[in-house]
Design goal:
The chain is an alpha+beta fold. The protein is 18% helix and 21% strand. The chain has a domain of 81 residues: Alpha-Beta Plaits. The longest helix is centred in the N-terminal third of the chain and has 11 residues.
């Protein structure tokens, strides 16, 4: 039986949706993941308990799960995809700003790297979050980084 999972915590702006996507694809699951204003919503075709156990073990470094709600459904899915975020209630736990991680620090000072001396270097494990967000859900378009055009390889 399929289900919808609603996860609250520090789950937006920390690489949570890509982690959900990778876990679901690796497990051969079908469904979707998307940000809502206050949580992350996941639709799965089956095996949600095993999926959640695996996901908890492989959380992104800055992510934290505080609450999980599961609703049984009869949805059918063809693949696992990341859906466009949807606005909702704005009670999401915002991630804190963090210092630069070792990997980004290496990129910052590597003359051969496209991010050499780029002042806004960050990744899913480091950088500004709280100070950038303008609105929920946490998507680039809802942050002050929206004014900076992504290069081709970052799109």
């Amino acid at each position: 039986m399929s289900c919808k999972i609603f996860i609250r915590g520090v789950v937006q702006g920390v690489g949570f949706r890509p982690a959900v996507y990778r876990t679901a694809k690796r497990m051969g699951l079908k469904g979707y993941v998307r940000n809502n204003g206050s949580n992350v919503e996941i639709g799965l075709d089956r095996d949600y308990e095993k999926f959640l156990t695996t996901l908890r073990r492989e959380l992104p470094q800055l992510a934290r799960i505080d609450d999980v709600a599961v609703k049984k459904t009869n949805e059918k899915y063809d693949d696992f995809i990341i859906l466009k975020s949807r606005k909702g209630m704005k009670h999401s736990t915002l991630p804190a700003d963090t210092g630069i991680c070792d990997e980004c620090l290496k990129e910052l000072f590597d003359r051969r790297n496209k991010r050499y001396l780029y002042p806004f270097t960050n990744c899913t494990n480091c950088g500004a979050r709280f100070s950038l967000i303008k609105d929920a859900p946490y998507d680039r378009r809802n942050t002050s980084m929206n004014d900076f055009v992504l290069c081709e390889s970052c799109r």
